[in-house]
Structure formats: structure tokens, C-alpha cells
Write a structure and sequence with these properties.
Length: 418
């Protein structure tokens, strides 16, 4: 039995296959949209959770890896998508969730987390030990990061029901996960020599840790292609820039690049990245951003129907009552902060949707109870979203929410596979 990712990477390296989008989200409508798009394009669905989001202590979602596995499978069954081939990935798995502790304690937690992930059926494992722990530099060097990654790989190999199904991703991107914190942060592609050094350091560390078998299943290196998003701006990828990185991969057809923070780029960028051997394209905030767009649109429509106050008022109260999820990510005067809380590209509002679940359900139920005036819908939503929603076997409001996410995700798939 082989993993689902390796054949796709081999095909991509031979210029015979597409990249795979990686849906990094714990939002049920986003996951459903990701599964459906994978089905419609005859590809596996790659759904990922991060170490802060899901871990053995619950993370900020309250889910352990086993809980998340059940969560995704339940969504698939609910939407009749249980036959879609599924790859579950763990993103940025390392000690960073516990970086306030000494390295030994943080790594002990990281080992427990890795074991929990692979036992729960996660098979794509991104080993990221680049962030320093208590008393260390914010970013540790390649040697330390690689040594810790190899230590975690050895734990994964020993804990997995079938280690041969595991594939590993190494390296990290700069800025940190979730996008740049400030709009004036410069973005430069990873220099080829640094990418080579990262690969070499990890190969050496895996050998020293007795994890050479795991090294043979390393399938990706995270590098910065030259794109990013910040709270109020998007650093656009320049498709005219030369490809200096592909030579780093050499003739290893089992290895590709993984790009993070690909959200909000123009559709042609994703095809260009594929030609540059980026086989895995991570997307997350742009999908929940699209979901929020559709929800706010539906709330405007409901306001025209019966005068119901806009749902953004509820979210504003929730974000001010518990500001820890956006403070430190958004900066500016009160007017700027108010706008960013709702419309920032970092989409920190996504942390608050579980707290507004009842309000979202009530809004959807009210809209589903009667015909939604088409002219009012068209005032707030594109016709492509409404046409896609009409083809989904879901209640009208939920269909619109998922369809709008799908419209964003479609840019990641080549048209000819549909």
C-alpha cells in the first residue's frame, strides 16, 4: 500500500500532473467545500490542521488529532463525500505551541503531539522546529531545527500504524505561519543556497537519529517563492521572475516544494507555481475570508427583508470581549483596527465563528424559511456563486456559503481536470 501524495509529486515533477491544494482550516463549511472540489476534479482532498489548532491538549479548537479525524470524516459523510480519497496533514508540527517552556519540556510535548497525530491517521507530517524555546533565539539555525525534526520523525515512525504511509515535509517559511504581521514587511524568495543547506542539514540529522527510512519519505521542502499576505495588503507573486529554486531539487522525482500563504493570489499564479515544482499549495485564511464575505452578504439581505441587525455587530462584540486572537496581529488607530477585525486578510475573525454559531444558524434558518429575493442577492453576491449554489443539494443559505468558498478554491485547480 502506498501513500496518495507520492504519485502526484512524481507526476508534477514530470510536468504531467497538477499541484494539490492544501486546505488548512477547521471550519466545517470550508472542509466540505474542499472535499467537494477535490471530488469534482478527481483528486484527493488534502485537509490540514496546525499544532496550535489541534494537539493532544485540544489546541484552540478544543480538538485532539483523533477528534479532528472524526470531525472531517463526519463532514464527509454528512455531505455524501465519504468516497473522496482523503489525506490528513499536520502543519507546523514541532515545539512552537510550547515555546514558552524550556526546549526539553517543549520537545516532550511535541513528541506526544506527533504520536497522537500519526495514531489518528494523519499521514502528511510537516516537521517544523524552527522557532526557539525559552531562552533561545526566536529562530534557531538549521542544525538545531533539523536535529529536533529528526527526533520527531523517529517518534512518528515508531508510533504510526503503518510508517510506510507517512510522508514528511521539512523546512519553514518566513514570515511565520498565518501571514505577515505588518504590511511593510519585505518578502524575498528563499535563496537557493539556503534551501540546499536546509535539505542537507535535515538529511544529515535524520541519518544521525537513525531515521534514514523516514528521510526516504520526505516529499517536500517549504520555501518562500516570493508571495505573502499581510493584514491589509497582498504581496503579489511576480510570474516574470526567473526560477532559481527548481535546481535545488535535482533529479529527485519524489521531492517538491511546498508553498505557504498562497492566499489571495491571482489564478494564473497557481499554475505558474506548479511549473516551478511547487506541488503543495497551502490555503486557509482566504477560504474563511470568502465564507465571511458570503455570510455578511446574507446578513445584509436579511436586513432588507425584515430589518434584522447585521451579524457583524455580534462579531464586533465577541472580538472586543476576547481580543487575544487579533491583538498583536492588527495595528493602527481605532478606525483601522475596527476595519481589520472584520476585513483583514489575516482573517482573525475566523477564531470567533464557533462563538457565533447560534447566530449563524438563526440567520440561515430565517433565509431558508422563505424565498430570498434574487435582485437583493445579486446586489451582494456574484452570479457565479449563486449559480454554483443552485447546483448544491443543500438548504439555500448554506449552499451559498459553501459555493462562495468553492469559487475561491477553484483557482487552485487546473480547468482541464474538472
Amino acid at each position: 500500500m502506498t501513500d496518495l501524495l507520492t504519485p502526484m509529486i512524481r507526476a508534477l515533477r514530470k510536468e504531467m500532473g497538477p499541484a494539490i491544494p492544501s486546505v488548512c482550516s477547521a471550519h466545517p463549511d470550508v472542509i466540505a467545500a474542499g472535499l467537494r472540489q477535490a471530488r469534482d476534479h478527481a483528486m484527493p482532498a488534502l485537509i490540514e490542521a496546525t499544532s496550535n489548532q489541534v494537539n493532544q491538549f485540544g489546541g484552540y479548537t478544543g480538538m485532539t488529532p483523533a477528534d479532528f479525524t472524526t470531525f472531517v470524516h463526519d463532514i464527509a459523510i454528512t455531505h455524501g463525500l465519504e468516497d473522496v480519497p482523503l489525506i490528513l496533514g499536520g502543519d507546523h508540527l514541532g515545539p512552537q505551541a510550547w515555546r514558552g517552556l524550556a526546549a526539553d519540556a517543549a520537545m516532550t510535548h511535541a513528541e506526544e503531539m506527533i504520536a497522537a497525530y500519526v495514531r489518528a491517521g494523519f499521514t502528511k507530517i510537516h516537521l517544523d522546529c524552527s522557532e526557539g524555546c525559552l531562552g533561545e533565539a526566536a529562530q534557531v539555525g538549521d542544525a538545531v531545527a533539523a536535529s529536533r525534526a529528526a527526533r520527531l520523525a523517529a517518534v512518528a515512525e515508531a508510533s504510526a500504524p503503518d510508517p510506510e504511509l507517512l510522508v514528511y515535509i521539512v523546512g519553514t517559511e518566513v514570515p511565520p505561519p498565518g501571514g505577515a504581521r505588518h504590511d511593510d514587511e519585505g518578502i524575498s524568495p528563499t535563496p537557493p543556497e539556503r534551501a540546499r543547506a536546509t535539505l542537507a542539514a535535515h538529511e544529515e540529522a535524520f541519518a544521525e537519529a537513525g531515521a534514514s527510512a523516514a528521510w526516504k519519505r520526505v516529499r517536500g521542502l517549504v520555501v518562500q517563492p516570493g508571495l505573502e499576505f499581510a493584514p491589509a495588503s497582498v504581496h503579489r507573486f511576480d510570474t516574470s521572475q526567473p526560477d532559481h529554486l527548481s535546481a535545488v531539487l535535482g533529479h529527485n522525482e519524489r521531492l517538491c516544494f511546498e508553498a505557504h500563504s498562497t492566499d489571495y493570489q491571482r489564478p494564473e499564479v497557481y499554475a505558474d507555481l506548479t511549473h516551478r515544482n511547487f506541488g503543495i499549495l497551502k490555503v486557509g485564511p482566504a477560504l474563511t475570508f470568502a465564507w465571511r464575505e458570503a455570510l455578511y452578504a446574507l446578513s445584509h439581505v436579511q436586513g432588507w427583508i425584515d430589518g434584522t441587525p447585521h451579524i457583524s455587530k455580534t462579531l464586533e462584540r465577541l472580538m472586543l470581549d476576547a481580543p487575544q486572537y487579533w491583538q498583536g496581529h492588527y495595528h493602527g488607530d481605532p478606525v483601522t483596527l475596527h476595519m481589520l477585525r472584520h476585513f483583514g486578510y489575516a482573517d482573525r475573525i475566523r477564531y470567533y465563528w464557533p462563538r457565533a454559531e447560534a447566530e449563524v444558524k438563526n440567520l440561515c434558518a430565517a433565509l431558508d424559511a422563505g424565498p430570498i429575493p434574487q435582485p437583493v442577492l445579486l446586489q451582494y453576491l456574484p452570479i457565479a456563486t449563486l449559480e454554483r449554489a443552485s447546483r448544491l443539494e443543500l438548504p439555500p443559505a448554506r449552499a451559498i456559503l459553501q459555493a462562495h468558498v468553492e469559487q475561491t478554491l477553484m483557482a487552485y485547480y487546473p480547468e482541464e481536470t474538472c
